[in-house]
Amino acid sequence: MSNSDKSHSSKNLWKLAIGALGVVYGDIGTSPLYAMKECFNPTHGLDLTEANIFGVVSLVFWSLTLVVSFKYLFFILRADQHGEGGITALLALLLPSFEEGKDTFGKIFIVTIGLFGAGLLYGEGIITPAISVLSAVEGLEVAIPELEYVVVPVTVTILVALFLMQKRGTGRIGAVFGPIMIIWFFTLAAIGLPWIFRHPEILYAVNPSYAVRFFSEHGIGAFLLLNSVVLCVTGSEALYADMGHFGRGPIRFGWFVLVFPALLINYFGQAALVLDRGQAAVENPFYSLASGWALYPLIVIATIATVIASQALISGAFSLTQQAVQLGFFPRTRIRHTSETTEGQIYVPAINWFLMVACIALVFWFGHSTSLAAAYGIAVTGTMTISSILFFNVARRIWGWNFFIAVPLLLLFLTVDVSFFTANLTKVIYGGWIPILIGFAFLAVMKTWKKGRVTLSEKMNEMAIPLDDFIASVEAAHPPRVKGTGVFMAINRDIAPSVLLHHFKHNQVLHEKVILLTILTEHVPVVPVNNKVRVTDLRLGFIKVIARYGYMESPDVNGVLILCQSSGLRADIDHVSFYLGRESFVASGLSAMSYWEKRLFIILSRNARSATDYFNLPADQVIEIGTQIRI
């Protein structure tokens, strides 16, 4: 049993499952709005015969079964890092298995595809709010065709309101997410069931032979249709990423008890509707399930559901950013915790505004959910494929699975994932290039930042001296010691910090207590309080403090000093001076970085969050000492 399951074992399963319904299944729960509409899009050239309709819905059924029920819920959810899931958790699991300091081909490959997958998740975080809200508001066109011109303005208004409310956090509204999504899933079943009763023969489509026959008859046309079928499994990766909030048990419970049955009933209901009405239902089969007065409340609940789905992806982008910062792949940025009780509820202003601008730009550019579907499919299938590869490596390198078990499983996963991904490549020129561009952009940023920090560390080490040698030189010099405590941030626990060397060189004086603080980010989400701080009392008033944080935590130096008191270290926080180094970079030095990487790293460094804010230091007690470094 994972830490996640252990921590939730004594809690009410229903309560956690309801919470999971509100957060985890928002994205996949709103896919009926656009998935079947795209499958029956006239551009595919499908004749609406019974065999073709059965073939399409059979593909949808088996996609949900194989991708979500089998791959993610049965296998991928096993790969948790102390209860947390997602691509960054897979990376955190794998990184310790490689020899530290050596960049082997295997390590470079794993890190590169993992970071690219994270970039694709950012792309999904941009596209999901746009396509979800837009597809819901398009119900106005079905109800009142004359209102077609208001769809885009209304969508943009909802998106602006959605991003403006992010700074308040999800704590206050989180309690209503679950119940609303329960209503939504019951609604999906309620509007689909009557059409299944009208055409019960549609249930024969669960037989995979209909999907096989569909492929044999249509060949490449059926293969290309997969770029629309895959829309029914959107949200699979978000499901995995949100595992830490609820545990795998409640997520599985919610899926098999409510979500999976409701989705299947609705998809089969839409197929039965198309079977009954033919071409007349293809324009928007989801909203065609309802008629008369029922259409208007359906539009309202669909819009609310898509906002909740969007909220989940936006929050996921915030969490991804925090994890990337802690793993050293992203510049420091302002991260605000919006809940006193739930650690995972955070708000990242820079990412929020970036997502908002990008979402609104997509809505204005594409103007219709069908057009956005091309971009959506690339992001989803790319992330799914990368997760399969990383999972295989976890199974082999971490769990020690037998080769003859792990490889067939990988081949099964990749057969489905690569088929979906390849089919979506045909839509690259129609918008699929957007998530690819976003993925490569974030990959470049994250790899350049990591490479730049490694280069900086190497440059600093060239100028550094061992800590023991520095203390020996202080002992020999007998410099004046002033009252109080000075805290110096140390990158390497055995090397004297450069800021300490500059301070002593120019001022020729030291505090009575000199704390050398090293903050380490571990490959775990959260470090327990009793393992967070280690204090070592060196001679001559020098004290070494090593503080460990998980990649989902934000460092807090004041909190570290408070924890140090249990080890006998007394320091009046109001009378502590914090010394930080402020490096400025010049792109004219010798290093392994190319010129464009140097320029990008310099830009990122200039715009990174200040160390004062990042380490939660009192600004009026911070002393910064500048250094120019050629990279």
Write a compact overview of the structure shown.
The chain has 631 residues and is of the alpha/beta class. It has 26 helices and 8 strands.
Describe what you observe in this structure.
By secondary structure, the protein is an alpha/beta fold. The chain folds into two domains: 3-431, Up-down Bundle (Amino acid/polyamine transporter I); 453-630, no CATH class. The protein has helices at 3-8, 13-23, 26-29, 35-39, 50-75, 87-94, 105-137, 139-143, 151-164, 171-198, 208-218, 220-229, 236-241, 243-246, 248-277, 285-288, 295-326, 349-366, 369-398, 403-425, 433-463, 467-477, 498-507, 557-564, 595-607, 611-614; strands at 336-337, 346-347, 481-489, 510-522, 533-537, 542-550, 576-586, 622-630. It has a six-stranded mixed beta sheet, sandwiched between helices. A two-stranded antiparallel sheet has the order 1-2. Residues 1-11 have low confidence and may be disordered.
